[in-house]
Specification:
The chain is an alpha+beta fold. It folds into two domains: 7-134, no CATH class; 148-368, no CATH class. The chain contains ten helices and 13 strands. The chain has a six-stranded mixed sheet, with helices on one face. Strands 1, 2, 3 and 13 form a four-stranded mixed sheet that branches. Strands 10-12-11 form a three-stranded antiparallel sheet. This is Lipoprotein.
Length: 386
């Protein structure tokens, strides 16, 4: 029996230091990126959440307008808080695997030892938003929806750029003896409402306002009350005299006091009495501009107003281009806001600028009417994404 052959060992070249350096460098780069990720997340998330909140508010408002058209109960949820947590997790892994292989030869046996180095890096990014929804009820509901718009808030909207015409048509149900479909602030009336003389007066008001001959402001007198100012030049026009006659005012004056209407107030020729709507009254009034499917009309699911002639009353003559919501079985290609309700899509056309402006005004009033509620508790807090 021959002598055993010697065994030589061949090992792979060690590079563990290089591997660890690679892992450390990669981790450093990732952590550096995390420092930049925070500010970027703030910029992108703020825009995304802002847009999502705006869209959600618009859809809720439109949904409740449609509900009122069907005499369904409106319901509102406020988004109380939105908080989010950003989490970045980084994991690194390194190791050595060694394999041995014996080679047999005529002269000698070789034991080949090979070292294999592995390195792995994993990073994950997660976001966990928490959204708090608060129901509008009690004092909060009364403050926002049932309280008539005050003259101070009316003036605030006027100073923010809204025209008198738009404000009077949306926010006011009566000027002196002229009614702007006053009963439409509750539910759709059964009979044709008074509106013609009101629209006639508002049309004249628009012409004078466009020429900067009529506006409202606070009086310089000690009481500092709200007044309607008519420029002296306006009285050279016959429509200004027609406006005064419609409202029962003495023509030729340059100031008329504006006061909230109180039952029992005697007519006065130097005072403009106004009856403002509540936000819920405005929504009910504007809901008559919601188009409904003919099948819902024939089945009695919506209230139809009867005209003085005995036929169906067209609310388009009252609202005109002020507000219009279309209904279609399929989602329109271009809409500013849409919601699906009772099997149909109700939408505001993206090119209907007048309706969009009215919708924006109501949205601003919704925020303006918000009261301070100290005891409102969240209805539901959702940790989204968990």
């Amino acid at each position: 029996m021959g002598q055993p052959k010697p065994i030589e060992i061949a090992t792979g070249q060690g590079c563990s230091g290089a591997v660890m350096l690679l892992v450390f460098t990669a981790c450093s780069l990732i952590m550096t990126g995390c420092g930049v990720m925070g500010p970027k997340a703030v910029r992108s998330n703020r825009v995304d959440y802002s847009e999502a909140l705006r869209q959600s508010n618009d859809e809720q408002l439109l949904l409740n307008l449609v509900r009122l058209r069907y005499r369904d109960t409106p319901s509102f949820l406020d988004v109380g808080n939105i908080t989010t947590q950003l989490r970045v997790e980084v994991a690194a892994d390194a190791g050595i695997e060694q394999t041995r292989e014996l080679e047999y030869g005529e002269e000698r046996n070789n034991l080949i030892v090979s070292d294999f180095y592995r390195a792995g890096i994993a990073a994950s990014y997660s976001e966990q938003p928490t959204i708090t929804f608060t129901p509008l009820k009690g004092e909060e509901f009364i403050q926002r929806f049932l309280s008539p718009v005050s003259l101070d808030k009316f003036m605030l909207l006027y100073r923010s750029g809204w025209s008198l015409t738009k404000l009077f048509r949306v926010c006011v149900s009566r000027i002196n003896r002229l009614g702007n479909a006053p009963r439409a602030g509750g539910t759709t009336p059964g009979k044709e409402p008074p509106y013609r003389e009101f629209l006639q007066a508002v049309t004249i008001m628009k012409d004078l306002e466009d020429d900067e001959l009529l506006f409202i402001g606070y009086s310089a007198r000690t009481d500092g009350g709200l007044v309607l100012r008519v420029d002296a030049e306006a009285w050279e026009r016959p429509e200004a005299h027609e406006f005064a006659e419609l409202l029962g005012l003495t023509p030729g004056r340059q100031e008329y006091s504006i006061r909230l209407m109180v039952m029992g107030d005697p007519p006065q020729t130097d005072v403009v009495f106004v009856e403002t709507r509540s936000l819920l009254g405005m929504l009910a009034f504007l809901s008559n501009g919601v188009e409904v499917p003919k099948s819902d009309i024939s089945s009695g699911k919506v209230k139809m107003t009867t005209a003085a002639t005995g036929g169906p009353f067209d609310w388009g003559v009252v609202l005109g281009s002020l507000f219009k919501v279309t209904s279609k079985p399929l989602l329109p290609a271009e809409s500013a806001v849409s919601i699906r309700y009772r099997g149909n899509w109700f939408s505001i056309d993206d090119s209907d600028l007048e309706t969009k402006a009215t919708f924006m005004l109501v949205s601003q009033l919704f925020s303006l009417q918000a009261g301070r509620s100290e005891t409102v508790t969240p209805l539901l807090t959702l940790p989204v994404g968990r």
